[in-house]
Design a protein that fits this description.
By secondary structure, the protein is an alpha/beta fold. The chain folds into 2 domains: about 5-200, inorganic pyrophosphatase (n-terminal core); about 220-315, Diaminopimelate Epimerase, Chain A, domain 1 (Roll), CATH 3.10.310. The chain has helices at about 10-25, 65-70, 105-110, 120-125, 130-140, 145-160, 175-180, 185-195, 195-210, 230-250, 280-285, 305-315, and strands spanning about 5, 30, 50-55, 75-80, 95, 220, 225-230, 255-260, 265-270, 290, 295-300. The strands form 2 sheets. It has a 6-stranded mixed beta sheet, sandwiched between helices. Strands 2-1-3-4-5 form a 5-stranded parallel beta sheet, sandwiched between helices.
Length: about 325
């Protein structure tokens, strides 16, 4: 029997997996990719009786692959917070899905494990921009301001590393990043001892310094749309830039359109921080789009659909 860990390549997916494998060590095959590579289950070559742990990837985007594995008598344990319209009714499928706007996969795993590795859950929540949830958990854990700041910083860097059009855009592949984290029971130990942290910190600071000069193509009291050129640093900052803007302007919705080299855009959408609704439904109107209430995206938006998207985005969030 083989075991597979299938996880999103962002902070939430990596920190969720870290919690699970600290609690339940296992020799597994790792399956991941860039943050936008979410149809991961179909990459698993599982045989009857094999086990899968799936973390932080949309069930809607993986449902056919999941059903095929269930027909092969594979066991699937699924943790996620994205929209899920078709949850299999099968004894081999154990789902822990919560689409609340203030929930992420690291927090779901934290609940499942009864806070056995809460520091990694806090890191994942900070990285997924679940700031209020992360702060509540940090307060319960008795963390001081400096400790919270460090975990917030780490979460941002882990999340930043997941964005790109391909693995070549990233500083570390998600599997390599997880393997660097794996030996550490505490994220504070990782920060203190692992050079990966300083590499990601330097890359983030460099890229975000360039992002400071960006101006919105569309700006109202309700929405802002940014158009980024087809540069590696733009692809890396698209998600964290959207999060930063959402935190700075909590009553405004934000869309970051990053030009690809195929006459198309990769889109990151953030609902207003004070009204986390509608992002997943909006992006699902477009092919290759999806997400959750507060944050969503479109992997490939053709140039011809740009104006239609901007109009739909503006309608969705206009006051």
């Amino acid at each position: 029997m083989n075991s597979f860990d299938v996880f999103n390549g962002d902070a939430d997916g990596i920190c969720a997996l870290q919690q699970m494998r600290l609690a339940y060590p296992a020799d597994t095959q790792l399956v991941s990719g860039i943050k936008r590579d979410i149809q991961l289950v179909k990459k698993v070559d599982a045989k009857p009786g094999d086990k899968l742990l799936v973390l932080d990837v949309s069930l809607d985007k993986n449902i056919e692959a999941v059903k095929l594995l269930l027909k092969r008598d594979c066991q699937v344990q699924y943790f996620d917070h994205h929209l899920a319209s078709d949850i299999p009714d099968n004894d081999l499928f154990k789902s822990y899905i919560n689409t609340s706007a203030d929930m992420c996969t690291s927090l779901l795993v934290n609940e499942y494990l009864k806070q056995r590795h809460v520091l990694w859950a806090i890191t994942g929540a900070y990285g997924d921009n679940m700031l209020a949830s992360a702060e509540r958990l940090a307060e319960q854990a008795g963390l001081d301001e400096q400790q919270r700041s460090l975990l917030h910083e780490l979460g941002i860097y882990l999340n930043y590393n997941g964005y790109g059009a391909s693995l070549e855009d990233l500083y570390f592949t998600p599997t390599d990043l997880y393997l660097a984290i794996k030996p550490y029971n505490s994220p504070f130990e990782f920060i203190k001892n692992e050079p990966v942290f300083e590499i990601l910190k330097a890359g983030y600071k460099h890229d975000m310094a360039q992002a400071d000069s960006l101006l919105p193509a569309v700006l109202t009291d309700s929405v802002a749309v940014y158009i980024l050129p087809a540069e590696k640093w733009c692809r890396r900052v698209s998600g964290v830039l959207a999060n930063n803007l959402s935190n700075q302007f909590p009553d405004r919705a934000h869309a970051i359109l990053t030009k690809s080299e195929k006459e198309a855009y990769q889109v990151s959408v953030r609902a207003p921080h004070n009204n986390k609704t509608g992002a997943g439904e909006l992006c699902s109107q477009f092919e290759s789009g999806g997400g959750r209430q507060g944050a969503a995206g479109i992997n490939h938006l053709p140039e011809a659909d740009k104006e239609r998207f901007v109009a739909a985005f503006s309608r969705c969030y206009s006051a």
